[in-house]
Amino acid sequence: MPTPQKVICCGLNFSDHIQEMGRELPQHPTLFAKYPDTLIGPYDDIVLPSGHDVDWEAELAVVVGKELRGATPDEARDAIAGYTVANDISVRDWQRRTLQWFQGKAWDASTPVGPTVVTPDELDPVAGVDVVCRVNGVERQRGNTSRLVFDCATLLAYASTFTVLRPGDLILTGTPGGVGQGMTPPTFLADGDVVETEITGIGCLHNVIRFHD
After folding, report:
1. Following DSSP, what letter does each residue of 148-185 receive, concatenated?
2. Does domain 7-212 have CATH number 3.30.70.1150?
3. Residues 207, 40, 21, 132: what is their CA dihedral angle, to the nearest 10 degrees?
4. What per-residue confidence (pLDDT) applies to 1?
């Protein structure tokens, strides 16, 4: 897979996650960007400074296969090279500093992706595949892509309206309910925690949290 020039993410795209965060269903996709520097491999450690509220967010990621500018949903659907697994690990205390999410989402080497890309003839997110996150073996998230508010083709078409998408670019489609921020009390990742992110038909990420001073 080519190095992506763009990593575009959709927040608040599963109805149960929207409800746990106390929001209304959106009329338009809520988008933010990451840099390619945020991406790591499927089995790499997630290494971050200590003292932060670090949360898990299991997501389906879409790999762009053709250049898209001002695409229709049908054109965008035809331009999907495949699907993979991602975890939008979020630094919540920084995310909460302002109304803009970027500074809590774009930490270097914080977003595992992989372990393979599955082509559209092998996987149909509209029909529905399970998106699961486990922390130390305990299931924290389980959602199904059939419950996405904005499906993959809609997201690609929408983003291509204002920025060109090129082969290798990634679109993260949003996380289901069950994030640590939404728990009572809020629960975050600790040093040594093992985060597994799995999507039926694609595979599983296995990442260990490592905090440093």
Report:
1. BSS-HHHHHHHHHTTS-B-TT-EEE----S--GGGSSS
2. no
3. -50
4. 67
- Report domain extents, the chain: 7-212
The verdict on pTM exceeding 0.85 is: yes
Yes or no: say if 151 and 120 are a contact pair by the CB < 8 Å rule: no
Query: 43, 80, 23, 49: which is closest to 195 by C-alpha?
Result: 43
pLDDT digits (tens, 9 = 90+) for 3-38: 799 999 999 898 877 777 777 778 999 999 999 999
Residue 48 and residue 71 in contact, taking contact as beta carbons nearer than 8 Å: no
